[in-house]
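Quick one, tokens below:
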């Protein structure tokens, strides 16, 4: 089976981890500090704070902004559940808005309609590697005095009018195994806010600035030097790997141009880093997916059940009417997308998609929507 994702781990990562292991200093230390400096530089922000995963990166920012019960946070349902979970952990309430049909990103034109006196923040998710409409989101947030927290967990290095994901508001990145760069598990917060950065450094380390001087209630959300050593190598490879992802996407675009499917779009002024290559194949999605799997193609669906339809969310009374989100959940397929995908493997994926779509073509027209 051609997998949907495969981490790009080679001898450099092995050597970097071995160095740390044999140094005797394996927990948070100088590799983490170096990784933070390098990531802040890469994103064009003042601070990067490394933590144990993307979920706590998000949650720590929300906690640092002082969110709590009674506060509302506007975000999307078409995302990995961690976006909403991180809001819920603080006691605040996620308020879901629908997405744009073409980009699968928050439909910024719908944000103002759901702002209430309790709204504190907007959380665009740069899903699949494309930055949301940050001009409109920043303008709305500015008008209403809202914080902007970018869920950039899937958007390492993506740009919007030349600026990097994670540099518009406060950013949260995941470094999970299948992400565009990885530390196996890990996360990063980006911010230009000196006070928030200082607070986050204490929060992730039991509230300690110096040993056993506990300034506040904190957690252990530290990253280890083992993880950071991997991350430093991965960061070196990020640009090359992004170019490779973009080349794979371009080849898919060409191969599917004559099919009744809708391939990803990249609005002017943005770069797509293709964490996923997601195709709208229409209402016969499940039959097409089954055929692809049969043909040895590890295609998948992100995400089959939107967050607002999960039982634990509905039990909280968080209802939303999100037809575009529902449509995306029922009509889309993500195809294998990783830098190590060989041309031969990609040809196999393309053949399988063409065959499956043609077989079920009667039901797959996206033009008729
Ligand atoms: C959009 C989004 N948000 C949040 C997360 C959570 O990151 P992590 O799995 O590192 O906790 C992920 C990662 O899977 C994600 O894709």
């Amino acid at each position: 089976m051609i997998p949907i994702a495969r981490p790009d781990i080679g001898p450099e990562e092995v050597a970097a981890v071995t160095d740390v292991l044999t140094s005797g200093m394996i927990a948070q230390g100088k590799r983490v500090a170096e990784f933070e400096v390098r990531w802040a530089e890469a994103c064009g922000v003042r601070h990067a704070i490394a933590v144990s995963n993307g979920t706590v990166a998000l949650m720590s920012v929300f906690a640092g902004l002082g969110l709590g019960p009674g506060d509302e946070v506007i975000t999307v349902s078409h995302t990995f559940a961690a976006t909403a979970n991180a809001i819920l952990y603080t006691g605040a309430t996620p308020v879901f808005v629908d997405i744009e049909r073409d980009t699968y990103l928050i439909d910024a034109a719908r944000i103002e309609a759901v702002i209430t006196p309790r709204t504190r923040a907007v959380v665009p998710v740069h899903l699949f590697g494309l930055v949301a409409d940050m001009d409109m989101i920043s303008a709305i947030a500015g008008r209403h005095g809202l914080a902007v927290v970018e869920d950039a967990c899937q958007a390492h290095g993506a740009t919007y009018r030349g600026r990097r994901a994670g540099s518009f508001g406060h950013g949260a990145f995941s470094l999970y195994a299948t992400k565009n760069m990885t530390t196996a598990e890990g996360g990063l917060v980006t911010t230009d806010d000196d006070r928030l950065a200082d607070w986050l450094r204490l929060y992730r380390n039991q509230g300690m600035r110096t040993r056993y001087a506990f300034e506040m209630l904190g957690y252990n959300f530290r990253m280890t030097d083992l993880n950071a050593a991997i991350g430093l190598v991965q960061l070196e490879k990020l640009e090359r790997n992004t170019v490779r992802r973009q080349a794979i996407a371009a080849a898919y675009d060409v191969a599917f141009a004559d099919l009744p499917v809708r391939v990803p779009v990249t609005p002017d002024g943005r770069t797509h880093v293709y964490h996923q290559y997601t195709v709208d194949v229409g209402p016969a999605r499940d039959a097409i997916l089954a055929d692809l799997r049969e043909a040895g193609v590890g295609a998948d669906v992100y995400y089959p059940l939107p967050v607002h339809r999960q039982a634990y969310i509905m039990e909280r009374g968080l209802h939303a009417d999100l037809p575009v989100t529902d449509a995306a959940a029922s009509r889309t397929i993500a195809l294998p997308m990783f830098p190590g995908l060989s041309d031969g493997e990609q040809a196999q994926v393309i053949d399988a998609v063409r065959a499956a779509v043609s077989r079920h073509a009667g039901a797959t027209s996206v033009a008729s929507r």
